[in-house]
Amino acid sequence: MQRTAITPRWLDAEQQVIWRAFLSGTNRVFLELDAELRRFGLDLGEYEILVNLSESPDHELRMSDLADRVRQSRSRLTHTVGRMEAKGILVRNACPSDGRGVNARLTDEGYALLVEAAPYHVESVRRVLVDVVDPDDFVALGRAMAAVADADAPTEAD
Amino acid sequence: MQRTAITPRWLDAEQQVIWRAFLSGTNRVFLELDAELRRFGLDLGEYEILVNLSESPDHELRMSDLADRVRQSRSRLTHTVGRMEAKGILVRNACPSDGRGVNARLTDEGYALLVEAAPYHVESVRRVLVDVVDPDDFVALGRAMAAVADADAPTEAD
DNA sequence: CAATAGTGATTGAAACCTCAACAGAGCGTA
DNA sequence: TACGCTCTGTTGAGGTTTCAATCACTATTG
User: Shortest CB distance from B6 goes to which of A32, A119, A138?
Assistant: First the structure.
């Protein structure tokens, strides 16, 4: 990247207020969710792993597939899954169809933990976000975040 | 907290789609911003420290005040500021009016770094969020996140 | 004016994440 | 078959964050 001088297109006052609300609001959401999940010895990243496994056939997913779904680096997922395996939440097995692959599968204990935590988690999501936001704004929020998530990846050729 | 059984108020299908878009979208935003700031040896947390100091009289703020503004724990701020001080970005001085306090103040180098990074940062914010979201949705997003940020702290008496 | 409680900031250890390097398996092609 | 390339997943080192404990100073109380 050439760090040539660029002409800054600064945010106007309203945009800046919105942007800072975004920083504060998202921070609040994740803090509260983590705090609630901590009661179950989980954080949001681990909870998402549980959810994605629980929604898959045999409660099982390839590591790389799981990594994509929970938006974690493979390395991070390996570490996290290793800790979860040590806690008995899931197990890893060689993937039968691809010698390189590894499947992570929920144990009964892991599934039970999810079942236990989920009601409290969804209650947190409501309390901190869904219930405090105007329904129309909530829908708009969804459109906005979907647009962000689905936007083309930035070209690396800058 | 009593972990008495609660009746889950599950999210409906649309709410769930929105919630997952929120997780994906916010993740995308923060990943891109960190990637851009990395060119300057910063992450978003450090950048926010720079911004808040730069907007304060004498480019100086009490540690606790700064911690509140950037929504970091005091411990985390101490560590982060320590590293930034080692890099020459800011300095710490005893607070003259309160023997317990410590002021963090931007150095000229630190301010110069902010001036250098800011245009690229704002460009990232536009590229990943402002420019890809419908303007009306962006305003709604601001209302939603402000509502989240300003909502009463949850009662600890549950 | 002590004694006590409260506030501001730091510390160090443990937990966690990132990054680059690596090993093993599959794929393509000659 | 053999070679190189890609893909999957792991590893370990180093850096960062969290958590609980601590120290120093201020405020409050009797």
Answer: A119
